[in-house]
Amino acid sequence: MTETQRIILGYAVITLYVLAVIFFGEFLHKKCKVEKVLARKIEHILTGACWLLGYLFFGVTYHNVLINGLAFIALILITQLRLMESVEHSDGKKNYGLIFFGLSTFIVAAIGVFVFPDLYPYAGIAYYCLTLGDGLAPMVAKLLKKNNPKLLGEKSLWGCSTVFIVCSLTALVFSLCFGLQLSPLFILSVGGLSTICEA
């Protein structure tokens, strides 16, 4: 397979995967009557695989920035035109969090490719903290809502704990897989800072 063929295949696989995630979320909400917030967070978590797919097909190239830029534009359109019922808030308000998510992943990809290409795995840590930490927190908080005191506004003890644990584990896994040799303090600081940012 030539490099051009691999890149074209990468765009096709990532696009089809994202469409599958979207349709899966809509199916869960409309056909299986799954709550919007749960369907939305499942979609959010599943999009985490896009970083890995981009890395496998494109390496550390501008294609990762371009695909994240296209996703950002798509999220703006989905939000503004209300194209997906499953990602809207239960009160009917537009979900601007989707736009901020798309902007965040675009910025992370751009910095990882153009500014610090040797540190691109760190962009992966940020990406997975965004998708897994933010995605799992409300699900765990909802599951354990009976014994889940509020800490800050709507943020709860178990939701914040989930972000801390998931993001720390993300840093640990990336450290092991990419040979980053991150210190325990650095790994825990990733979890701590992610928790603060999410809150």
Note down, in words, how this protein is organized.
There is one protein chain. The protein is globular. A two-stranded antiparallel sheet has the order 1-2. Strand 1 (150-152) and strand 2 form a beta hairpin. The longest helix is centred in the first third of the chain and has 28 residues, at 3-30. Helix 1 runs antiparallel to helix 3 (49-58). The mean pLDDT is 87. By secondary structure, it is mostly helical. It has 8 helices and 2 strands, in the order ααααααββαα.
Walk me through the topology.
Blueprint: H1 3-30, H2 36-46, H3 49-58, H4 62-80, H5 96-115, H6 120-143, E1 150-152, E2 155-156, H7 157-178, H8 184-198
Report a brief summary of the structure.
With 199 residues, this protein is an all-alpha fold.
